[in-house]
Inverse folding.
C-alpha cells in the first residue's frame, strides 16, 4: 500500500505492505515544477531528498482514503477517458510464490469504468458500461516482474501479459467521464470491476500509464 507527503514543489510516495519494515519500502518522487501530471519518477536521482522526506513521512499516522479505507494511490485529476480508445500499461512486481489477487488499477465505479485485476491468479480486464461488466482474461505463468497491457477500442477488448494475449468483442467505448478517480493498487470507491472494493493488490505496481 502507498502513502505520500507533499511539499510546495515535490511529492514523495512510499510503497510498503502493512507490517513491513520501512527499509523494504520503495519510493516515487515527483517534481511538480515540471508539471502537475506524475509521469517521471526522479527518486533514483534525488536520494538525499527521498531520505529527508521519508523521515518526515515516518512520523505520520497511517493514512486512509476519503472513503475511510487504507489507501493505495489515487490519481486526481484522472485521465479523461470519455469516448476515448484506452491503452493501459502497468509493470508489477511480486514476492516469491505469490498467487496474485486484487486491483492493479481502476478508474470509475458501479456505472462506468474499467479495472485491471487478478482473481485467483488469473489476470482480468473489466469494462463497465451502464452497470454491466464485460471481461477479458488471461491465465499466464506468474513471474516476479510482469508487464500488463490492455486496450479498449470500438471493436475489441485486448489483454496481454508476457506472451499471453486474449481478445473479446468490445462493449464500446466508455461514453462518460467516470466520477471515481483512477486508483492504483486498490479500488478506492465503488467497484469498477466485478469484485468487492477495495480489493487490495497483493503485489506492487512499479509503474503505470493510461493513454487515450
Amino acid at each position: 500500500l502507498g502513502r505520500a507527503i507533499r511539499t510546495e514543489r515535490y511529492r514523495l510516495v512510499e510503497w510498503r505492505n502493512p507490517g513491513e519494515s520501512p527499509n523494504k519500502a520503495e519510493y516515487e518522487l515527483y517534481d511538480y515544477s515540471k508539471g502537475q501530471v506524475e509521469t517521471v519518477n526522479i527518486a533514483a536521482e534525488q536520494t538525499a531528498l527521498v531520505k529527508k522526506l521519508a523521515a518526515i513521512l515516518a512520523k505520520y499516522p497511517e493514512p486512509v482514503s476519503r472513503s475511510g479505507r487504507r489507501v493505495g494511490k489515487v490519481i486526481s485529476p484522472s485521465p479523461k477517458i470519455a469516448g476515448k480508445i484506452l491503452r493501459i500499461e502497468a509493470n508489477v512486481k511480486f514476492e516469491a510464490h505469490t498467487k496474485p489477487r486484487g486491483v492493479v488499477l481502476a478508474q470509475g465505479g458501479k456505472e462506468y469504468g474499467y479495472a485491471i485485476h487478478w482473481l485467483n491468479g488469473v489476470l482480468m480486464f473489466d469494462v463497465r458500461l451502464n452497470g454491466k461488466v464485460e471481461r477479458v482474461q488471461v491465465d499466464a505463468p506468474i513471474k516476479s516482474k510482469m508487464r500488463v497491457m490492455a486496450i479498449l477500442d470500438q471493436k475489441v477488448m485486448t489483454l496481454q501479459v508476457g506472451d499471453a494475449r486474449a481478445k473479446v468483442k468490445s462493449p464500446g467505448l466508455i461514453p462518460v467521464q467516470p466520477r471515481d478517480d483512477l486508483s492504483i493498487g486498490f479500488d478506492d470507491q465503488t467497484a469498477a470491476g466485478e469484485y468487492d472494493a477495495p480489493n487490495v493488490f497483493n503485489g506492487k505496481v512499479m509503474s503505470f500509464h493510461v493513454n487515450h
Remarks:
- The domain at 73-211 is CATH 2.60.120.200 (Jelly Rolls).
- The chain is about 5% helix and 40% strand.
- Residues 63-69 have pLDDT under 50 and may be disordered.
- The CA atoms of residues 198 and 206 lie 19 Å apart.
